[in-house]
Amino acid sequence: DGHKIVFFQEDPYGFSGQRLDQQFLANPARCSDHLLRWHFRQAVLANIRGNGELIREHDFPPGSDMMGQILSAPQAKERMEFELFGRLSAYL
Questions:
Q1: 79: how many CB neighbours lie within 10 A of its CB?
Q2: Which of 26, 46, 57, 79 sits most deeply, having the most CB atoms within 10 A of its CB?
Q3: Is 46 exposed, middle or buried (0-12, 13-18, 19+ CB in 10 A)?
Q4: What is this structure's pTM?
């Protein structure tokens, strides 16, 4: 909706209903619209139904088998996408 800012709790800053700044939107290093839509959808699910997708814990102890843990967990495909995007997005 034109990058409108939505708060699901009290908005102490007065940002709710405003739109993201055009300078931010023109920045090629900003996050994708796809990610912003996904984030909004998860916020709606978490606030309406009580839980959206699983919270993604991305701290793995040193020496642990990250790939094994990710691939054996529920929603392995989505988790791999999350991990890869988080780690590689800085290089795009």
A1: 19
A2: 79
A3: middle
A4: 0.49
